[in-house]
Amino acid sequence: MANLTELCLYEARDGLKNKSFSTKDLILDHIDAMESSRYLNAFITETPDLALKSADLSDDNYSNNTNRPLEGLPLGIKDMFCTKGVLTTASSKMLSNFIPPYESTVTNNLWNNGAILLGKLNNDEFAMGSSNETSFFGSVINPWKKNDKQAELVPGGSSGGSAASVAAKIGVGSLGTDTGGSIRQPASFTGTVGLKPTYGRCSRWGIIAFASSLDQAGPITRNVRDNAILLNSMCSHDPKDTTSSSKEIPDFESSLGKSIKGLKVGIPKEFYQDGMSDEIIKMWNNGKDWLKSAGAEIIDISLPNTKYALPCYYIIAPAEASSNLARYDGVRFGHSINSNDINEMYELTRSDGFGDEVKRRIMIGTYVLSSGYYDAYYLKAQKVRSLISKDYNDAFSKVDVILTPSTPNSAFELNEKCDDPLSMYLNDVFTVPINLAGLPAISIPSSKDKNGLPLGLQLIGKPFDEETLYSFANIIEESSNFESLDDIWWLK
Amino acid sequence: MSKLINGKTGDWEIVIGIEVHAQIISQSKLFSGSSTSFGSEHNTQVSFVDAGMPGMLPVINSVCVEQAVKTGLGLNAKINKFSIFDRKNYFYPDLPQGYQISQFEQPIVGEGKVIIDLEKGVEKEVRIERLHLEQDAGKSIHDQHPSYSYVDLNRSGVALMEIVSMPDMSSAEEAQAYIKKLRNIMKYLQTCDGNMEEGSLRADINVSVRKPGDELGTRCEIKNVNSIKFIGQAIEYEAKRQINLIESGESIKQQTRLFDPKKGQTRSMRSKEEAHDYRYFPDPDLLPLSFTDEFVEGIRKTLPELPDIRRKRFVEDFGLSPYDAGILVSEKETADFFEIASKNSNSKLVCNWIVGELFSILNKDSKTIQESPVTPENIGKLINLIDDGTITGRIAKDVFEIMIDSGDDPVSIVDSNDMRQVSDEGELDGIIEKIIQSNPDQVKSLEEKPNLMGWFVGQVMQETKGKANPKTVNELLNKKLLK
Amino acid sequence: MSVDLDNVKKIAKLSKISLKESEGKKFLTDLNQIIGWVDQLTEVNTEEVAPTFSSFGADEGIKKRNDTVNDGGYREDVISNAPKSDEGFFLVPKVID
User: Fold this and answer.
1) Higher pLDDT, A2 or A471
2) Residues B335 and B288 grouped into a single domain
3) Whether A146 is catalytic
4) What sign does the CA torsion over A3, A7, A13, A15 have?
5) Do C31 and A367 touch (CB under 8 A)?
6) How far does Cα A242 stand from its chain's mean position?
7) How far is Cα B238 from Cα B59, in angstroms, rounded to an integer?
8) B54 touches chain A (CB under 8 A)
9) Residues B201 and B169 both lie in one domain
10) Same domain, B56 and B167
């Protein structure tokens, strides 16, 4: 029998339902894939024993017809989600020994629906980064390589491990988090489908906080249908998270195949960048054509404050992070360095426990909140944010979705951008405004660049309108005929 | 009129502002579902949220919001229908999140006022600047180990109201009166139990001095003073300290200080020597708090009668003097006791008995009125027995003593001990006659020493074991002896 | 606005992060670059614009909980990850007030 890891989420789901194979067999194949793909360094913690134990339970449920929506399906979980009894590190030395005594609401929802934990996935430390090069546990390697080139590439970040594992067909899907593009950008770099839901769709309880007003959990999968299925199990209203919405959760899977005739697609002129590559422009135009062919109307729109989104984000996110990361002080959990003096203990612990990018962002955050600078930076940024949100609000009175590229370029080489934080930040130019406005957005692999590397198109939707996103994403997926990765070079 | 302190270079005025931290009466904490009860085993009332674990989020307790609004109404203050929660960022081992959730620029309650009661019936208005909600911190114990401090987070996250006064007080007496009044109002409202010993009410006292008419001087903050007595001592010491410093040519450094009750002195707090930049910003995990006029009015309707209003009612309806009424309402429990006791009895007499006899024995045994061995109903009955002449005032005191020891009701005590007043003229006349007959020398001496009448009264009392009606005895004696 | 070494030292102290000499210099360069870049927000006219408090949920209002005790009471779990603890207390180097 062909390796069961070839089956995507819905195929595995259907196969298990039809009893074409057992959960145990499915899990064994995925464990095998995980163990032989360690070169990619996508996983920080592998949980094969847990997975096999859960597999037995799932097989029982299938026999008794008590199987749940995700019964027996193996998933990788970004190491920002607290998993009870399982090491959760945020890919940082600071939490390299942290075993949460509680389970995040989102992952709890998945386990309650029968999904199985395959392992905890590597990411940029504390979710801060766009290349998964800041992890304490080493960089993640993108399963994709440039045509005939040896150079190892980044998978994007911060959910690098989540995206790489899905591209490498380890697990039938994974969870990531997206604060400024951390799901969509790596999805674009790895030819996978990544969705950031509307802010409030998924509970943040139990997810290690980076920037509270921007963080959202989201699914990364091999295709759009899988993504919709996974999202449905993730969402819930959580009374433990007052920013989680009580809006009704529709059946996302049923949006696939819905007609988009007569719906309007906005093309924001400000997303055209000077020096934008021909390949990206071509992909974007293709996207417009595909949607037009499916009956949608293409409309030019303006989002005037787009260029201020990145600087705005790089004030707000670090500010919130500087406060959220204050709890890492070596007292109640995590890394701790001894001293006779409490202040010295704090400083030694934090200086040793945090990596450079995290320290940089904490310092920026502390600076922009500090006395004398608060008004000019933080308060100003929150006002600019209101203007950005208003731009989208106004645009959505004219259109139903907005179409843009996901990233300004394809995956770059490891170590290419390490020394220049600012140039790393510019990776997020197309994704960051969406987090500021709290909107849902999805990246769908749509073409390849001249080096054969994936490029993604991004669709941005109205608040709580993931359904329309999925309908449109489905069209793009069907039209693009994107060929997924076939060279499993890391196993050789 | 402010009380002035006499220094070497002239008179000085003290300027005092007070920040009170009052723990809100609620079952659970401000942003988590842990219990708030006092005195539990350490770290047993701590949730993952209280411990600031990764991924934890705050959810606000609706009752705490109501209690804050209620207190604001009790302080005649403006209720802000829109307010924001801010994070106050600093590092300390009893602050698990590395920040305290508080309110900075937009607090839930704005300006208000409190009338404080001073000596000789003098009243003064102290303005309130604001009241806001915030989390309490945990506790560190420093004497369990030579090199470690022990941290207990039970208190971490308990709801506090921080009440900030304007610098309107000018003496230790005024400061103490302010705290007493504030505490009393909150006890009436049942929004804080005001127990300073248990730490449910703490005061930070800001003290500065100046020559009358001058600009405000530099102030020092004395943190966490936890008794009315210490507040007085701390202010007196600090004011003198500052005056001495200035008069010897030095300037006052703005600092945070602690009061040491053993030495009766304030000293600088080492850990707070550097100025903090708290980097306040709106907590992104919490939306702004907003409510309607209807919500506020709904709470206003549930307000109990507040002390000032109750005092007025005691004066108007019960005919008490403002002074006496003031004493009764100064503790809600005392006022409650009084109202039950005087329900069917002469209110003035009840008041006098409570303030006199009852307070006397309570003070002697260091008991509160809630611990009174005598019920208010029984005090009422005792007063009735005096009032209707069943027993004399003197006997009443004996009855009261028996009531204290036995807890019995006065009527049964009087009956079983045969303590009824003897007012029967015939009976008394007989006794008086006997005494007159047996003491001819005293009768004769009466002409020169009219004061000897008292001796005769005493003899009658002795004969009747104190039960004779004094008025009747006097009348009869006068009739018989002062012919 | 530009950041100087004093700013960096002050911020590091507030964040409880200690920087070696060389680190300090690198952070100074990085910070200046980033702050210089975010300074472009001064171009935006934000007069009369209210700051964002949270994306959405504003119409749902701040969600509250009832005043019931439904949490806490699991000291073992709370202490389970503590680097230093004793008899259910968290231990820290002695703090002198």
Assistant:
1) A471
2) no
3) no
4) negative
5) yes
6) 22
7) 41
8) yes
9) yes
10) yes
Same domain membership, residue B448 and residue B394? no
Order of strands, sheet of B148-152, starting from the edge strand that comes earlier in the sequence: B139-141, B148-152, C89-93, C85-86
**Is-contact B420 B391, C-beta < 8 A?**
yes
Same domain, B401 and B257: no
What DSSP character marks residue B459?
A: H
Subunits with 3+ Cβ pairs within 8 Å of B are A, C
For CA atoms A114, A120, A124, A128, the dihedral sign is: positive
Q: How far apart are CA B469 and CA B427, in angstroms?
A: 11
A233 carries an active-site annotation: no
Tell me the average pLDDT across C43-53: 92
B280 with B329, same domain: the answer is: no
**B274 and B166, same structural domain?**
yes
What is the ipTM metric for this complex?
0.95
- The single-letter DSSP state of residue A207 is B
User: Distance (Å, rounded) from C-alpha A476 to C-alpha A465?
Assistant: 17
As a three-state string, the secondary structure of A423-489 is HHHHHHCCCHHHHHHCCCEEEEEEEECCCCCEEEEEEEECCCCHHHHHHHHHHHHHHHCCCCCCCCH
Q: Which residue has the tokens 């998933």?
A: A75
Residues 135-154 of B with CB under 8 A from C: 140-142, 144-153
The encoded tokens of residue B143 equal 């004497």
Last-in-domain residue among B250, B276, B299 = B299
Residue B70 structure tokens: 């209620």
**In this structure, CATH architecture of domain A1-492:** Alpha-Beta Complex (3.90)
Asked if residue B50 lies in contact with residue C72, where contact means CB atoms within 8 angstroms, the answer is yes
3-state secondary structure of B398: helix
- On whether residue C35 sits in a domain, the answer given is yes
Q: Whose CA is closest to B403, among B430, B383, B422, B433?
A: B383
**Block residue for tokens 């806001």:** B132
Position C76 in a domain? no
**Whether B303 contacts chain C with CB within 8 A:** no
**Closest of A370, A384, A375 to residue A311, by C-alpha:** A384
CB burial string B355-384: b at 16+ within 10 A, e below: bebbeeebeeeeeebeebebebebbbbbbb
**A218: three-class secondary structure by DSSP:** strand
Domains identified in chain B, total number? 3
Count the neighbouring beta carbons within 10 Å of the beta carbon of residue B27. Answer: 16
CA-based Rg of chain A, rounded to a whole angstrom?
21
Residue A158 annotated among the catalytic residues of the structure:
yes
Q: Chain C residue with minimal CA distance to A369?
A: C11
Q: Outline where A128-237 has alpha helix (H).
A: 160-167, 184-190, 224-234
Structural domain containing residue B471: 425-481
In a domain, C68, yes or no: no
How many Cβ pairs within 8 Å bridge chains A and C?
169
Output the six-digit token pair for A64: 């008794």
How large a percentage of chain B has pLDDT more than 90?
Answer: 74
For residues A458 and A472, give the distance between their C-alpha atoms in angstroms, rounded to a whole number.
10
Write down the pLDDT at residue A124.
98
Residue span of the structural domain in which C28 resides? 5-43
- Do B315 and B285 lie in one domain? The reply is no
Query: Which residue type is seen at B9?
Result: T
The catalytic position among A78, A120, A145, A417 is A78
Tokens matching residue A373? 């600078």
Query: What is the three-class DSSP state of C12?
Result: helix
Q: Residue A21 and residue A55: Cα distance in Å, rounded?
A: 12
Q: What is the pLDDT of residues A271-309, one digit of tens each?
A: 998 889 999 999 999 999 999 999 999 999 999 999 999
Q: In the prediction, which pLDDT does B470 show?
A: 86
Which three-class secondary structure state does DSSP give residue A9?
helix
**Residue-wise pLDDT tens digits, B70-124:** 999 999 999 999 999 999 999 999 999 999 999 999 999 999 999 998 988 899 9
